[in-house]
C-alpha cells in the first residue's frame, strides 16, 4: 500500500488483484494500470479494506522475521535433516508414468458472447458491469482490463470497452459441449469450473501409440469444431504442472512438459511461485520478503527454514512444489462436499432488490440439489457488508429440505434480522455428508472478485 516514503508515486506500492498479470497482459504498462487503480480506488471502502489486508500481511511478515531471527545454527542443522527426509520421501513418490492435460477455455464468457454476436469480434469486451467484471477478452486485456476488476476502473483504462451482462445458461450450455469432448478421452475427467478441466490421457496415449502433445492438439481441434471456441492446453506428468503449462501459450495454444525428471526440474528452476495454484498474494509475500524465495526451485534451497517456520502440511506442499510434484491419481468418486452459487451486483441497500437476488439464488440452489437428489437441514447465511465486515448466521431445522420455498423462507428470516445492509454479492454453499446433505449454507457476500458460478467459490 501507499506510504509517505513513496513520495510522488504512491501507486507503486499499491498491489491488488487488479494489477497481477494474466494471459494476454504481457505488454501492458503495469505502472499505468497501478496508477489508475490507485487513483480511482483511494478513499473507497475497497481501498480501506486493502489497507487493512496490507497491514495484516505486514504483521505476519514481521512475525516471521522475528521467528527467523531466533533460529540458531543448531536449529538449521536439525530442520535440514527433517527437510531432507521429507524430500527423500517425496522424491520416492514421484510418478512419471501418467500424462495429464489441463484444458482452459480462452476468455470463456467473453468468447461465448462473441460467438453468439459476431459484431463484437475484435472489440475490447468485458462480461459484467460497471460494478464488477467476470472476464475480459484479449483485446481488453491489452489495456490492463481483467477479471475481478470493477467496471468503472476498466472503462478508465479502456474508454472503448463494451460491457455485456453475464448469461450463465448460455455459458453452461457451451461448457456441457466441451465436457462431452473430454468424456471421449477420459470418462473420469475432473471439471474444476465451467471452463477448466483435468483429463488423464495416459490410456489413450498408450492405446493409440501417440504423445500427449498429439492428444492435446486433437482435443483442441475437436473442441473448436464442436463449439466454435478455442482453448489452451497444458500437458505434464501431474495435475499441478499441467495447470501451469496451460497458461504458457494462451490463447489457443498448448505447452508440453515431458515426462522426464530433468525436464521437470529445469522447468521448475525459473518458475515464479505465484504461478502455482495455492500460492496467493499473502503466501508469496511471506516467502519472498522473509526467505527471499521467488522461484519454485528456491523452495528446495531454503528447505530447512521452510520446515522451521511453517506447519507440517504447508512445508510438505512447498517442498513438493520445489520438486515439481503434484497429484497424478484420479480421485475416486466421493459424496459431494458442497454446491454453491453466487451473483455479483452493484452495492445496494434496496431491500426489495436484496430479496429478489435471494429468490434467484434460492431457486438455483434448489434446482442444483434436485438434480443430485440432495437435501439438508442447517442453513447458514454469510453476509459481507459494503465495508467488508463479515457476519455469519445459521438456523438448524427439524427436517431436511431442498425446495426453493423452504430455502427462501428460512434464508429470508436470517437476512431480515440483519437489515438494513449494503451488499453487492449473494451466494450460498450446501455441505454434504454420507447422509446426503447435512448443511445448506446460503451465502450473502460482497466480494471484489470475478463473477463465477460453480462449486466451492471463494474470494
Largest sheet descriptor: 5 strands, mixed
Percent of sequence in beta strands: 15-25%
Termini, distance in Å?
A: 20 Å
Rounded to an integer in angstroms, the radius of gyration calculated over CA atoms is 23 Å
Count helical runs: 17
Mean pLDDT figure: 84
| SSE arrangement, N to C | HHHEHEEHHEHEEHHEHEHHHHHEHEEHEE
What multimeric state do the chains show? single chain
Counting DSSP E segments of at least 2 residues, the number of strands comes to: 13
Dominant shape:
globular
Flag low-confidence runs: 1-5, 431-459
Which strand order does the major sheet show?
A: 5-6-1-7-8
What class would the helix/strand composition place it in? alpha+beta
* Fraction of helical residues: 40-55%
Could you provide a short overview of the structure?
The protein is an alpha+beta fold and 459 residues long. Helix content is 44%, strand content 17%. It is globular, with a radius of gyration of 23 Å.
